[in-house]
From TrEMBL:
Gene Ontology biological process terms from the UniProt entry: Golgi to vacuole transport; intracellular protein transport; vesicle docking; vesicle fusion
PROSITE patterns on file: SYNTAXIN, T_SNARE
Regions that span the bilayer: 244-263
Organism: Hypocrea atroviridis (strain ATCC 20476 / IMI 206040)
The entry's keywords: Membrane, Transmembrane, Transmembrane helix
Pfam name, any one: SNARE
Name this polypeptide is given: t-SNARE coiled-coil homology domain-containing protein
Family: Belongs to the syntaxin family.
GO cellular component terms, A-Z: endomembrane system; SNARE complex
InterPro entries tied to this protein: SNARE, Syntaxin, Syntaxin/epimorphin_CS, Syntaxin_N, T_SNARE_dom
Database matches in PANTHER family: LD27581P, SYNTAXIN
GO molecular function: SNAP receptor activity; SNARE binding
Length: 264
């Protein structure tokens, strides 16, 4: 992503030109902590959603899934408010703009993952309720040539099983249908937030690309200047070596001349 490239370019230079703003730093730190909580919830939710609809599916598991999604929705709303508030800061340095954009982008990714998990849970809940309704209906209507036998069995079961058990099973189905409606509403509410965050990230994208390009240009210019300095140093060294050689030659010639004069 663009902010990854900018991060690598600014490595070791994050403190340069950075204006300390306690309020900005506090909000940014708070959002990062909440993002970590959301990511942790996503991991737990992914494991539990995988179990939904299997033989290990239990009322306790569904309650845990429901509670995790409720907590994650609240975290998403809090982070969304914080991201919007973070956009109100003016006169930000390049590093602050980078951090501002990174928080928004990271939240967009985590929110998208949470929405995907909610939809998976919704599909599995719907399938379970449909199967329960069909099983309940088959107990009443019977099936094919075995209808008479099933009716007899139902009469025997009805004598053994109290009506409270039937009512209890119906209550469980109604409860799961209510959970489905809650998930549907949660997905719908966060869809609005997701679109808002996506718009923020898109608007920041061009700014981040510009910052990244500027930083890269500075990096290239600095590297070019370093190369030129090294070349100049090599030229100076070569010139000094040539100068030393010429002096040595002149000294030898001068020595020969003096010896010739003395001997002559």
């Amino acid at each position: 992503m663009a902010y990854d490239r900018l991060s690598s370019l600014e490595a070791g230079q994050s403190g340069a030109g950075y204006t300390d703003d306690p309020a900005f730093q506090d909000l940014q730190y708070e959002l990062k902590n909440k993002l970590q909580s959301l990511l942790s919830n996503n991991r737990k939710l992914a494991n539990d959603v995988n179990v939904l609809g299997t033989k290990k599916d239990t009322p306790r598991l569904r309650e845990r899934v429901h509670n995790t999604m409720e907590k994650s929705r609240e975290i998403c709303k809090d982070i969304g408010d914080g991201v919007k508030k973070l956009q109100t800061w003016d006169d930000l340095t390049k590093q602050q703009k980078y951090e501002q954009t990174k928080v928004s982008s990271d939240f967009q990714t985590a929110l998208q993952e949470f929405q995907s998990l909610q939809r998976r849970a919704l599909e599995k809940e719907r399938a379970s309720v449909t199967a329960a309704r069909e099983a309940q209906a088959s107990e009443i209507t019977g099936d094919g040539g075995e209808e008479q036998l099933q009716l007899q069995q139902q009469q025997q079961v009805s004598q053994l099983a109290p009506q409270d058990e039937v009512d209890f099973q119906e209550a469980l189905i109604i409860e799961r249908e209510e959970e489905i409606r809650n998930i549907e509403q949660g997905v719908g509410d966060l869809n609005v937030l997701f679109k808002q965050v996506a718009q923020i990230v898109t608007e920041q994208g061009q700014q981040l690309i510009t910052i990244s390009d500027n930083v890269e240009n500075v990096h290239e210019s600095t590297r070019g200047a370093d190369v030129e300095t090294r070349q100049a140093a090599r030229y100076q060294k070569a010139a000094r070596n040539k100068g030393c050689c010429l002096l040595l030659i002149l000294a030898v010639i001068l020595t020969i001349v003096i010896l010739a004069i003395v001997v002559g």
